Amino acid sequence: MAIDPADELPHAGLVDEWVFAAWAPDGSAGLVSGHRLFGRRSWYWFGLVQAGHPLLQITEWDVRVRADPFIVKAPEMWAEHHCVAPLEQWTVGNEAHAAALDDPAEALGRGYGVVTPMASDVEWYATGAAVAIDGGYVQDGVAHGLIELLDRSHIEWAEVPGRRWHRWSDGLGPLELPTVRAHTGLRAPFAFPDGTVADWVLTPEGWRSRV
């Protein structure tokens, strides 16, 4: 089924969600960046994993939606999911204080970690057509950009694998990914305010759901 470029934008009266992911081909680092709109309020979540370093996580669960719904601003945090060209190119960026979590499982509890300044500026480009899924679509791509980090080398990516999802409905649960069992890869879990959980783990094939 062909995807209408207009479907990149929010759908009036429904809950919309955009999720972007990218990862190093060797599985040594990856990110996930999500944004969900509920009328005039929104959620934002971001996770960065890198071998040998704590999970960096940003979560904002009650953000006022601005005139441009793809800009997310909260105390000491700015983020953006900007559609440069529908079904072709997006900018995914933020500037914030993340929580550094030595044990990723902490993200499913209180989520308290060491406050760590960071900034990311990543361009996401499609490499194929958007494919319909239940309630939306998924699209493969590549990512280019820079993630600036405190007290360690920055991460610079040039054409690393990426994927993105856009879903909309009266109500949404966690994004469904292929599953892996007891995987030892880098992990980025999120506990959402509605009681649901997304527990992602990075594999050489990309992000998977940990069970």
Question: Describe it for me?
Answer:
The protein has 211 residues and is an all-beta fold. It contains no helices and 15 strands. β2 and β3 form a beta hairpin. The mean pLDDT is 94.
Distance between the termini: 31 Å
Integer average pLDDT: 94
Number of helices: 0
Number of strands: 15
Q: Order of strands in the sheet with the most strands?
A: 1-2-3-4-7-8-10-11
Round the Cα radius of gyration to an integer and report it: 16 Å
* SSE class: mainly beta
Domains (count): 1
- Which residues sit in consecutive blocks of at least 5 with pLDDT less than 50? none
Main β-sheet: number of strands, strand sense, barrel status? 8 strands, antiparallel, barrel
Gross morphology: globular
Share of β-strand residues: over 45%
Assign a percent range to the helix content.
under 10%
Question: Secondary-structure element sequence?
Answer: EEEEEEEEEEEEEEE
* Assembly form of the protein: single chain
Task: Give a brief outline of the structure.
This protein has no helices and 15 strands. The protein is mostly beta strands. It starts with 14 loop residues before the first strand and ends with a strand.
